[in-house]
Amino acid sequence: MRRHRINLNLLVDHNPLSFMTSVANFIDSIGKEDYINVFLAELDNVDVTTGMYSRAYACRQHGSSIDWSSLLKSSVASTSSSFQLSDVIRDEDSNKDSNANINKLVAVGSALLASLESRPPSQWLTCRLSAWVKLGRMDRALQLLAGGPADLLDAGFRHLLYLA
Q: Are 145 and 73 in contact (CB under 8 A)?
C-alpha cells in the first residue's frame, strides 16, 4: 500500500500568523510526541507555498517576506512561560542584531519550546530534545537531561542518539 502525505511545512507556510498564534492548540490537537517529532524533523526554512505547492498558491505574492521576529514575540508572549529567546540564539551571535537571526526554523522551534515549557517534562521530553537539536543547540538538549530521573535520562539519551 502506498501512502501519500503532504510536506508538514505547509502547516506553517499556509498561514504563518495563524500557526504562530495557536502553537499550544497545535500541540494539544496532535497530542502525540511522535507526531510532533515528525513535524520537527521535517521543518525547514523553505516556504513550500512558493516551491512545492506553488500551483495551489498562485495568488500568493512571491518574494514577500515574513517578519518571523514579530510572529515569534507575539507567540511567546501568549504563553505563560519564562522562555527566553536568548537561550536559542548562540552566544557568538548575540552581539549581532538578534532579529536578523530569526528565521522560520528558529521562530517555530522557539514557539514550540515556549509552549512545551509549561507542560509536564516527562510527557514531552523527546519533543523538547528534538526542538533543541533542530535549532542546533545540542548543549541545551543535554542540559535538559542533566539531573533528571534515570528512566527519563535513558529515554532521552536514546532519542538524542537517534537524532545525531
A: no
User: Whole domain around residue 103: which residue ranges?
Assistant: 10-163
Total number of domains in the chain: 1
Total-model pTM: 0.81
Task: Give domain status of residue 5, yes or no.
Answer: no
The answer to whether residue 4 sits within a structural domain is no
Render each residue's pLDDT in the chain as its tens digit; 164 residues.
567 788 999 999 988 889 999 999 999 999 899 999 999 999 999 888 888 888 888 776 655 577 777 777 777 766 655 566 656 665 445 445 555 567 899 999 999 999 998 888 778 999 999 999 999 999 998 998 887 788 888 889 999 998 87
